[in-house]
């Protein structure tokens, strides 16, 4: 795997982070596309820096959901996706990231409320997720996705709307994934389980304040590199 050239890394003041890919951590998850040398799996997202209270709520939710599906694994990092995972060729990384930087430069920080428990599957139904859906701040997220989609189109890559929401192109469900398991287990987690999980969120002390999130930056992960775009 080739390193990202210094010319790309120096375009950003933010510190780059190295992450070594360890297949043993994938826990049976299935790749959406085969790994090939020179192909960089890339996606754009907004990171959520969690507080201790959030981890307490997460523990309550995952522990309860495991009474319905014991194979659930809690997420270790939290974010709202602004793209699906796409494949970039190595020589596209520099112009792709530069284009993102230009399109996202004018966006201000904003708040979201993520307080609705929902069950999701990935496109090919190989994984099921429990997440917190965004119920306020949806419009700003749509605006961000619109700009990210324009970058995708420049590089002839799948856009977020068309790829994930055939039926309702203008209404994606933005969410923070909390836990996942292999396979399509929506049948076990929806209904009674989902109602009980929502009740845990609603009763959690100060949950309205805890789940009101201010977004500070947008990130792009390409291979093992992270690029950061601060919101104004």
From TrEMBL:
<keyword id="KW-0378">Hydrolase</keyword>
<dbReference type="GO" id="GO:0034477">
    <property type="term" value="P:U6 snRNA 3'-end processing"/>
</dbReference>
<comment type="function">
    <text>3'-5' RNA exonuclease that trims the 3' end of oligo(U) and oligo(A) tracts of the pre-U6 small nuclear RNA (snRNA) molecule, leading to the formation of a mature U6 snRNA 3' end-terminated with a 2',3'-cyclic phosphate. Participates in the U6 snRNA 3' end processing that prevents U6 snRNA degradation. In addition also removes uridines from the 3' end of U6atac snRNA and possibly the vault RNA VTRNA1-1.</text>
</comment>
<dbReference type="GO" id="GO:0005634">
    <property type="term" value="C:nucleus"/>
</dbReference>
<dbReference type="GO" id="GO:0016829">
    <property type="term" value="F:lyase activity"/>
</dbReference>
<keyword id="KW-0539">Nucleus</keyword>
<protein>
    <recommendedName>
        <fullName>U6 snRNA phosphodiesterase 1</fullName>
    </recommendedName>
</protein>
<keyword id="KW-0540">Nuclease</keyword>
<dbReference type="InterPro" id="IPR027521">
    <property type="entry name" value="Usb1"/>
</dbReference>
<dbReference type="Pfam" id="PF09749">
    <property type="entry name" value="HVSL"/>
</dbReference>
<keyword id="KW-0456">Lyase</keyword>
<dbReference type="GO" id="GO:0000175">
    <property type="term" value="F:3'-5'-RNA exonuclease activity"/>
</dbReference>
């Amino acid at each position: 795997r080739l390193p990202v050239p210094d010319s790309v890394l120096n375009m950003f003041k933010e510190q780059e982070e190295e992450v070594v890919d360890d297949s043993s951590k994938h826990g049976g998850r299935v790749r959406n596309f085969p790994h090939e040398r020179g192909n960089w799996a890339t996606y754009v997202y907004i990171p959520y820096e969690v507080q201790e209270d959030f981890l307490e709520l997460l523990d309550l939710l995952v522990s309860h959901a495991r009474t319905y599906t014991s194979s659930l694994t809690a997420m270790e990092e939290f974010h709202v996706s602004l793209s699906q995972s796409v494949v970039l060729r190595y020589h596209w990384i520099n112009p792709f990231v530069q284009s993102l930087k230009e399109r996202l430069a004018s966006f201000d920080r904003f708040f979201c409320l993520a307080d609705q428990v929902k069950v999701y599957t990935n496109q090919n139904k190989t994984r099921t997720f429990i997440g917190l859906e965004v119920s306020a701040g949806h419009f700003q997220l749509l605006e961000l996705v619109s700009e990210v989609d324009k970058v995708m189109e420049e590089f002839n890559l799948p856009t977020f709307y068309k790829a994930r929401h055939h039926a309702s192109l203008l209404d994606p469900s933005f969410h923070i994934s909390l836990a996942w398991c292999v396979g399509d287990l929506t049948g076990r987690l929806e209904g009674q389980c989902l109602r009980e999980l929502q009740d845990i969120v609603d009763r959690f002390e100060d949950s309205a304040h805890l789940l009101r999130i201010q977004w500070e930056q947008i990130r792009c992960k390409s291979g093992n590199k992270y690029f950061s775009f601060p919101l104004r």
